[in-house]
Amino acid sequence: MENLKINPDLEIERKQCSFNIEEMAIWWNGGKEKLNDKRLRDSHFFSDPDLVNTIPSSYLSHKDVYENSVEKVTKIVKKLQQLSFNKDNPEMTWDLIFTFRSMFGSLIGSSLLPDHNPLGLHYSMFVPTIFGQATEEQQNEWLEKAIKFQIVGTYAQTELGHGTFLRGLETIADYDSKTEEFILNSPKLTSYKWWPGGLGHTANFAIVMAQLHINGKEYGIHPFIVQLRDLETHMPLKGIEVGEIGSKLYMNATNNGYLGLKNVRIPRKNMLMRNAQVLPCGKFERKSSSVLTYGTMQFVRVIILQDSTNILARAVTIATRYSCVRRQSPINTNSPEPKIMEHVTQQLKIFPQIAKTIIFKVTANSIYDLFSSVRDELNSGNLKRLPELHALSCCMKAIYSSETAKGVEILRLACGGHGYMNSSNFPNLYGFATAACTYEGENTVMYLQTARYLIKSWPTIYMRRKLDSIIAYMGVFVNNPPIKLDGSVASIIRAFQCTTTQRVRLAYTRLNRRKKLGSTTEEANNLSGIELTQIAELFGRTYILQTSYLAIQDIINSVSSELGIVFEQLMELYAITEFLAYLGDIMRFVSVNGKQIDDLHTRLENLLKKIRRNAVGIVDGFDIHDGLLNSALGAYDGNVYERIFMEAKKSPLNKEPVNRSFHLHLKPFLKSNL
User: Fold this and answer.
1) pTM for this structure?
2) Which residue(s) pair with 211 in the sheet?
3) pLDDT surpassing 60 at residue 89
4) Contact criterion met (CB below 8 Å) for 353 and 575
5) pLDDT at 385 (0 to 100)
6) Which of 1, 37, 55, 458 is deepest in the core (most CB within 10 A)?
7) Lowest-pLDDT range, 96-105, 134-143, 496-505, 598-607?
8) Confidence category of residue 8, pLDDT binned at 50, 70, 90
């Protein structure tokens, strides 16, 4: 298969590209050095025969999928550590954790780990929580062990009966001052920890989020390091009931587990005490704001933005290449069947997803920069911008995950029946994408968190006092000034800013009206839930538009004019499709006439024409290795049908011409004279 020639249809697409694809790849990967590092990693992993899965995982049993993933992921981590930690004792930073997690995550959903992996939470949550919430003394004890995988950890927060509502968690940690120990218990079935990746049979330690009780008094949710299994035998320790929760839509190698605790004693030092501590005598002391306990969640949500972008990039690469090879349905009756990409309806399915991928990329980078900045401020005791980061990360997580899941499904449908096959890799990509819509905060709850920030901020907005940077524009549009919609991206952004501001104003007014009519604050919030989620989503989409627009302008100034034009077109396409999608909201506050809408539709069609010649070049610029795409439809060489057929022949049912069920069941049935 590797010796197949490039499909001539894809060769034509690449030759007609108006920009240098290598320049695009350098930008996408963050520079020439990072691109070379990535290619080295690709070669390092995807050419390793020990990591090749000879049988597609869809043909394996649930048990085999897990065991195969454990074998592969241990080899992958060793190879990653060889590449990443070849310097003497690198200083542990958020950037280093993020970089390693990104490299680790870049291999997820590939041919190496098609069903995800059981060590995912170790680096995405266990290590970051120790780094962010442990004291220096505790870090000295636990961090190096975790980084070197001398222990394997997970993060046990969600319970069978409670997820996003953290205050409702039921696991209890009672402090015993006589022995200076915490006693952890799961008082009922709903308090069992449920969902943590790797908890089932992989992790031997967990950070357990539990309600702290001292002498019968509750002190809120706090993190505790709990050993789950013996380090030699891996048997569960006394009082630990642990296992796997079973098969899921996707991620069946993640080894999601359950955990019940019965009188499990841990030393006092096993409470992560950077933000709060219990003294030996039993006195509780809070060192900083309680919200810092949830700092790990901010980090994970930032990771989700990067993961979602990469999933969408893979999906759109597959659909774009396939659409330039597949031929079907003549546009003119007597003409040959064209590439399906020539159909404008196909372009409308795919090109906005290409644009969204680019926009998501630059916005996610911006949010990571904000996260890094706020984390530095937190380390120096400045909590001022934490609410801003929290509000932003919540709605961004919701938008990115839902838009990625929707985008993958659009792209799967764009590939017709072949997109339904496992060999297309769309089922895995969809499973990966849609999982993020509920983990680390269910999306509706995420929107409500952002809405709470917006409603709380409205009095300051209305008075036009000093505003947080992410809502600064609202001070300009508080009185709904007239917007001149000239069709430019800048004017579309102003329309969104005005619409978002006015929707927040209406939500605030109606919320207070409900309270004046006798509803409690909580009841009013519930009754206003639809509006609150809508304003949060609008706010998030406005942020993406304005942030990406500024970022794209900087990019245009730093790349060749040929590539700059492509970025400009994609930015415009994204802005117009967003405007048309939210036209109903916008028309309530911005004067829009029929001609302006017609003009935007015409520009949309013209943009599809302009982007058409460069579509394959753009996705080639993502520089995604075939091993990571893991798709018969999307391979670089474009030999779709040969690859589909080769994948079909891997089916165990094709190993023999006649399956035994014929003689056992089918033949007697056919002879039974029904």
Assistant:
1) 0.94
2) 172, 221
3) no
4) no
5) 87
6) 458
7) 96-105
8) very high
Structure tokens at 625: 């290795």
Active-site residue (options: 159, 440, 537, 578): 440
Q: Checking DSSP bridges between strand 284-286 and strand 217-227, what pairing results, if any?
A: unpaired
User: What token pair was written down for 177?
Assistant: 């001052």
Distance in angstroms (rounded) separating the CA atoms of residues 414 and 319? 7
- Give the pair of three-digit tokens for residue 317: 């690469």
Q: Is 22 in the active site?
A: no
Instruction: State residue 622's pLDDT score.
Output: 97
| Cβ-contact 620, 637 below 8 angstroms | no
Looking at 134-234, list the stretches that DSSP marks H as alpha helix, in order from N- to C-terminal side. Answer: 136-147
pLDDT tens figures, 350-397 = 999 999 999 999 999 999 999 888 888 877 778 888 899 999 999 999
What does the pLDDT read at residue 294? 60
Residues 6+ apart with CB under 8 A from 227: 204, 205, 237, 266
Would the pLDDT of 321 be above 70? yes
Picking from 33, 153, 100, the residue whose alpha carbon sits closest to that of residue 306 is: 100
> Please, what is the Cα angle at 640 between 638 and 646, to 5 degrees?
125
| Rounded Cα distance, 258 and 242, in Å | 6
Bridge partners, residue 155, by sequence: 207
Q: What is the pLDDT of residue 90?
A: 56
Task: Please state the φ and ψ torsions of residue 159, each to the nearest 5 degrees.
Answer: -120, 170
| Structural contact between residues 292 and 222, judged by C-beta atoms closer than 8 angstroms | no
Domains within the chain, CATH numbers bracketed = 443-592 (1.20.140)
What mean pLDDT comes out for the span 200-222?
Answer: 96
Which residues sit opposite 415 in a β-bridge?
none
β-bridge mates for residue 208, sequence order? 156, 224
d(CA 13, CA 622): 16
Q: Which residue has the tokens 């809405």?
A: 451
Q: How many residues are present in the chain?
A: 674
Phi, psi at 325, each rounded to 5°: -115, -40
Asked if 69 and 118 count as a contact pair (C-beta separation under 8 A), the reply is yes
- Between CA 21 and CA 30, with CA 27 as vertex, the angle to 5 degrees is 140
- What is the per-residue pLDDT for 84? 60
Q: Is the pLDDT of residue 88 over 60?
A: no
Alpha-carbon distance of 439 to 256, in angstroms, equals 12
Phi, psi of 55 (to 5 degrees): -115, 125
Using alpha carbons, select from 503, 509, 569 the residue that is nearest to residue 534: 503
Mean pLDDT of 473-502: 94
| 339-342 long-range Cβ contacts below 8 angstroms, 24+ apart | 339/9, 341/612, 341/615
295 contacts 379 by C-beta, under 8 angstroms? no
DSSP-H helix ranges across 294-422 = 295-323, 344-379, 386-414
φ/ψ bin of 198: left (φ > 0), alpha (ψ from -120 to 50), beta (otherwise):
left
CA 28 remoteness from chain centre: 18
Question: Of 467, 440, 439, whose CA–CA distance to 454 is shortest?
Answer: 467
Return the DSSP state at 632. Answer: T
Residue type, 67: E
How crowded is the C-beta side of 406, counted as CA atoms within 13 Å?
10
The dihedral sign for the CA sequence 481, 486, 488, 489: positive
Residue 1 has pLDDT above 50, yes or no: no
CA pair distance 42, 48, nearest whole angstrom? 10
Residue with tokens 């949500």: 301
- pLDDT on residue 81: 75
Q: Which amino acid is residue 367, in one-letter code? A: I
HSE-CB of 229 using CA atoms within 13 angstroms: 21
